[in-house]
Amino acid sequence: xxxxxxxxxxxxxxxxxxxxxxxxxxxxxxxxxxxxxxxxxxxxxxxxxxxxxxxxxxxxxxxxxxxxxxxxxxxxxxxxxxxxxxxxxxxxxxxxxxxxxxxxxxxxxxxxxxxxxxxxxxxxxxxxxxxxxxxxxxxxxxxxxxxxxxxxxxxxxxxxxxxxxxxxxxxxxxxxxxxxxxxxxxxxxxx
Length: 191
Hints:
Order of helices and strands: HEEHHEEHEEHEE
Structural class: alpha+beta
Number of domains: 2
Shape: globular
Distance between the termini: 28 Å
Number of helices: 5
């Protein structure tokens, strides 16, 4: 599996500010800001393509989380789009209001490219999974779901984790045993 690229503190701070600015613009129906090329480090420019998620919390409770596993353009643009979508279009929540904005905390997860995890039995799969290291994608026919690595903190038992992931995909809770499993790593930073 590919190793995750880390970011300098000033790059993390910049990306978090960019996400907040995009979210604020969406809440107030303003145009989304576009960074100037000289504001971007080489790592963040056009050539940097990674999957990423933006997670919003409101008083430590999930308020929105949207992302893309596969790259769909430069990282900074994905962060802008995912911040807006997490706040305004996550189907689990109503659109964010201006009164919520000041209490929102933003977390960004930047992903490595997913790699299929080969296993010949459910027991072997359980041995290969690394809690708090692996983000996991479950593919079962047309059904697909993912949990970021930090979800292990809420679901530390491997079987429970996989059962919830399977249910999230709309499959049966034991369908993880005969699904494709892909893993990735993530670097996370938050406000």
